[in-house]
Amino acid sequence: MTENRLSDRALRLGVNIDHVATVRNARGSAYPDPVRAAKLVEAAGADGITAHLREDRRHISDADIDGLMAALEVPLNLEMAATEEMQAIALRHRPHAVCIVPERREERTTEGGLEVAKDENRLAHFIAPLREAGSRVSIFIAADRAQIEAAYRIGAAVVELHTGAYCDFHAEGRFEERDAELRRLTEMASFAHGLGLEVHAGHGLTYDTVAPVAALPEVRELNIGHFLVGEAIFVGLDPSIREMRRLMDAARA
Questions:
Q1: Of 162, 170, 200, 203, which is the active-site residue?
Q2: Where are the domains of the chain?
Q3: Is the dihedral of CA 62, 32, 43, 101 positive or negative?
Q4: Model confidence over 182-198: pLDDT tens digits?
Q5: Peptide bond between residue 32 and the one before it cis (omega within 30 degrees of 0)
Q6: Higher pLDDT, 253 or 132
Q7: Which of 16, 65, 89, 110 is the most exposed place for a label (fewest CB within 10 A)?
Q8: Which of 140, 131, 114, 154 has its CA nearest to residue 221?
Q9: CATH homologous superfamily of domain 2-252?
């Protein structure tokens, strides 16, 4: 079933359920349950689930990852920092995909892409066991030629282009800068695809910003979370995901 769900659409939607856990952890309660949310997301037609197990466990917990691995029929994309602890967790679970992201304790959310070019040797050795275990390795990076080339050299299968700046410029009404960032994303998606990398994109995408990114023919997957969880407060998870899917499909068509 997993392979069919991966191949049945030209553009896949991965839904990040981190912030369901954020709400749970705000009260230290057992609810809302991210695994239950993931199953609802799955039923709404998402192609995969993304969860970021941070070093400080500020939202997703180890038990959540255990539950997701046991419950999901769609692929799990485990986001994590390039640390020995996280590598061991990924090797134990062997999720479909592992996305390596930068991580700083003081940040609110992931800020910018991973610096691959200056840490190439360590990252190449870090991802090698993950690849050997059967996980597809993705690198979360800025739309930058040097970072894409470095991701290719270390053996990543996928690059996920950081769309945060594009979304921020749109929200702030800085449309010339937004359009320049979109051009950069467009050019770098084409460049990465030309190297043989699978191209994903994500961070900060909303109903208002998703279409131009979804329209990029080289992009195979969008990972969207915070906006969908926020929208679900008003309309529910199922309608929020179906509307995002509709907008993605319309842009792609």
A1: 203
A2: 2-252
A3: negative
A4: 999 999 999 999 999 99
A5: yes
A6: 132
A7: 89
A8: 140
A9: Aldolase class I (3.20.20.70)
Distance CA 12, CA 1 (A): 15
Active site residue: 79, 181, 221, 231, which one? 79
Strand 12-16 and strand 48-52: the pairing is parallel
79 in catalytic set? yes
Q: For 164-176, write each residue's pLDDT tens digit.
A: 999 999 999 999 9
Amino acid identity for residue 155 in this structure = G
From 19, 42, 52, 200, the catalytic residue: 52
Measured distance CA(85)–CA(131) in Å, rounded: 17
At 4 the pLDDT is: 40
Catalytic site includes residue 203: yes
Tokens 């996928």 correspond to: 158
Cα 204 to Cα 73, 99, 149, 161, 176: the distances in Å are 26, 17, 24, 12, 18
